[in-house]
Amino acid sequence: MNGKNKYSGRKLTMGILKRIKQIAAADLNKYLDSFEDPISMVNQYMREIEEQLDKAKAALAGRLVVEKSYEVLVEQTKEVIGKRTRQANLAVDRGEEEIALLALQEKIIHEEKLQVYLEQLATVKQQTAALSEELNKLTDICNELQTRRQFLLSRTNAAEAIQRTVRVQNTYNSESILRGFARMEEKVWRMETGAQASREVSRLARPDGLGIGLVSQAAFSELERLKAERNV
């Protein structure tokens, strides 16, 4: 495995871990004070977190690939060591010391490689575990900020609505508006009353028989009395 790539991978991983910890430890309230628009600030803060989250996920995927590669190397090296051990034993049994020496030499070389691979695998596993832990923390922070953002957005919208209402009230004299509506209501009421009165007068002024339904029984009784007095 290329040493330069391993170093670059470790450097990238540690850089991401450092940035994640900086974000997680940031004082959100102080950050808020430097922005006039809290929603824009939260959006910017979350974009930065999501960017680091994506980088952390990519780094974690890369670490898992490296970890798997070392595991394969360890298993392959163990197989070679086992094979060379069997070859050395067989050569000794046959009295073939030269072949036994060659097998043992290769066995020793692979044992040294195995030790290096195991140490590197342990380091990669530690990095993977650390990155995974920080990734979980960053995910929790992101989820919490999503919830807080929605709450903050709701509060901001409510505050803006109140401000608009106050501006409208300050722009127009509410008492004057109410008095104007009262005058309009009174005018409409007078128009309705006049129309009703005109309709009643019109009914009473109709020819005989058309307005009978509007005359009371007392009026009929009075009419009969007048007719009797006048012998009509």
From TrEMBL:
Organism: Paenibacillus cremeus
Biological classification of the source: Bacteria, Bacillati, Bacillota, Bacilli, Bacillales
Stretches of the chain forming a coiled coil according to its record: 114-148
Domain of life: Bacteria
UniProt entry tagged with the keyword Coiled coil: yes
Entry keyword set: Coiled coil
Assigned protein family: Belongs to the PspA/Vipp/IM30 family.
Listed name of the protein: PspA/IM30 family protein
Annotated Pfam families: PspA_IM30
